[in-house]
Amino acid sequence: MFNKIEKLNIIKNSLFEYVSSSQLSPLFLLSEIQDKERQPYFHYLKEAIEKIPLELIEEILKSKNLKHALNLNNPLGKHFEAGLNILTSYFQKKIPMEKYNILIHQDEVERPIPYNHQAISDIQIDESFLIELSHFNPVPGGFERNGYIFTIIPPVPASNTCYWLHNFLKFNDLYKKIRVRLDPFNFAKVDKFIPIEHRMWVWGKPLDWNQIKDSKQPEHGRWMPDSLSRSDIQFTDYVWNPYNNEITFTCEEIPNPQNNIFRGSRYFHGIYSKKYNYIIHCDGAIRFTSKKELYKRIKGHIKDQHIRKIGRRIKIFMNKNELDFFEFCGLASSFFVWNNDIINYFQ
Question: For residues 233 and 339, is the Cβ–Cβ distance under 8 A?
């Protein structure tokens, strides 16, 4: 269905920009546009739905799997409701694809969006296109500077993925020593920004660190996803690897092959120093792979060096300052929100 809508080219740029820059997910935003008949976006939405071929509309209406998701009493008609469902699904895939395309090609321009925005154009970005959050003021839902609120780019295709990471970084002023990759679309003026509140606990507390610190051999494992984790996860690998006076932790959540076009893997890395007894480095990234590279990755484990070199990693955040165990576990839990295995591991 996605490819069919993509080929039709029926979405106006102004509608895409409006939906992609909102803090609301397309599921709620498109319904809000319809309910409030918000112009000119309602006109653009209605126009796009009217251009969807009838056979695609009928396919949705006949789908037994979607009956519970459709409001067949929609005042604009069941065909409009089916079109709304099609466009919602399209935006949910298209927006992260466009964001990740910007990440992959970000080194082709001096200041990729949103770093060219007037509110932050004076702040230096590093070689990984990360920016220091110490230049911003933490506010509900994001980080403010010069009258605009910016957010961290989600590592998986869900607009609220970084909500818990935002909150954890504000905890104990942790944001002052973290660098992040800002979302190229999701920012707005303070008076236009709509912070979203979510009721869900995501937190971390120390593991048995004495056991980790005393380890002489690599410790590794793999989790298969359960019903409480995202449905697009193939598995999650981790390894603790001791070397001299340091122990490196690497963890990666692998997407299943059918979703590889819409998302990358979540990749988390940290270094513990035995000498200083704290975390001296920590970063989270998205790893992008081709279909061939993903199948090669699935056959291996993150503990193997050649497996870690597959694809291309784009950093989402990085910290080179001291982190205690609680901060490290909290960052991991927040970064891997909706991965129940990671949450349980760090609790």
Answer: yes
Q: What are phi and psi of 28, to 5 degrees?
A: -90, -35
In a domain, residue 110? The reply is no
Cis peptide before 114 (omega within 30 of 0): yes
Q: Tens digits of per-residue pLDDT, 132-175?
A: 999 999 998 899 999 999 999 998 887 778 888 888 898 778 89
Q: Are 229 and 208 in contact (CB under 8 A)?
A: no
Residues 340 and 220 in one domain: yes
Tens digits of residue pLDDT in 293-340: 999 999 999 998 899 999 999 999 999 889 998 899 889 988 998 888
Domain span holding position 299: 209-346
Q: Cis before residue 218, ω within 30 degrees of 0?
A: no
Pick from 302, 296, 316, 283: nearest CA to 240: 302
Same domain, 341 and 213: yes
